[in-house]
Write a structure and sequence with these properties.
Length: 145
Amino acid sequence: MKIAFGADHAGWEQKDALVRSVTAAGHEVVDCGTGGDDSVDYPDFAETVARTVAGGDADRGILVCGTGIGMSIAANKVAGIRAAKCNDPEEARLCREHNDANVLCLGARVVDPSVMTEMVTAFLETDFAGGRHQRRVGKMTALDA
């Protein structure tokens, strides 16, 4: 699977650690930055990752900022994106299974790094359940129009 990653200055260290973990698990990575703690604007990185996923150049995206909230708001502005801000592995699993989320948003200041790794694993290993959930995802997709 090809995964696009992005972070702001608050999340870049965790992003880099997650990139290493995902690469070691055999996934391909598109690193959309940032790579340091100089202050940057998170919407820029959320947009780049979201457009990469929506455009089909990556299968899924992972964004990390201080709380994950700003990244999720910005990413969800891009048509075709269903970004979920999650706090634990169960939420990461359910956002895939029930909502077919294609971008996971994480908060470096509010989630333990080891939990983030578990969340990313759950997000990448969980398939969309379809069935009754497909109707609901279809309604969300219609909102993009």
